[in-house]
Amino acid sequence: MNRDALNQQILELAQEVGALSYGDFTLASGKKSSYYFDGRLLSLHPLGSQLLAQACLPPIVAARAESVGGPATGGIPLVAAITLWSQIDGTPISGFFVRAEAKDHGRQKSVEGVIRPGSAVAVVDDVCTTAGSLFRAIQGAEDLGCKVVKVMSVLDRVEGGSEELRKRGYDFETLLEAPPDGKVGVARQ
Fold first, then answer.
1. Tens digit of pLDDT for each residue in 76-97?
2. Backbone angles phi, psi at 143, to 5 degrees
3. How far apart are CA 45 and CA 42, in angstroms?
4. Which of 14, 49, 54, 58 can bridge 20 by disulfide, Cβ–Cβ 3.0-4.6 Å?
5. Global confidence as pTM
6. Which residues contact 16 (CB under 8 A, 6 or more apart)?
7. Please, are residues 93 and 67 in contact by the beta-carbon 8 Å criterion?
8. Is-contact 161 134, C-beta < 8 A?
9. Per-residue model confidence as pLDDT tens digits over 21-31
10. Rounded to the nearest 5°, which phi and psi values hold at 92?
11. Gap between the Cα atoms of 41 and 21, Å rounded
């Protein structure tokens, strides 16, 4: 299946399972929005997790990432799906996630999972708005000396985050995007 067709299938499933809905919503930031996207309803759906992994894995492999990670909690199911699909695909990539704050017990780590210091990594999340969660995950990987070779989101709200990522030199890609009119569609590549 070609990339646009795969992303279209993701968009249709997001609407079908209620991950994407239209109406009048107030976001966590306090801003108003004509749509709401809950990526976890898609990444925790059996077919959704498979489609997301199928869409995300090729660019991650092409970037030569050795591990894929994301912020807790939105990135965790996406990372799990990609790592599982990578094994099925014959291109195994390990996974990690970055906590908002280090644990206050045990090893007191903020980065959990299989990540080798100094390796090439990809960072993924369900939504990119300001990219705050993505930047936190990027920082966690870079603090270990890793090079972030790819950054991806399922949905780019086109509210400055993707622009800031690219401005700082990160190779950013998204599957879906919502231009200012608020109509979510397949991302233009």
1. 999 999 999 999 999 999 999 9
2. -65, -20
3. 5
4. 14
5. 0.92
6. none
7. yes
8. yes
9. 988 888 766 77
10. -60, 130
11. 12
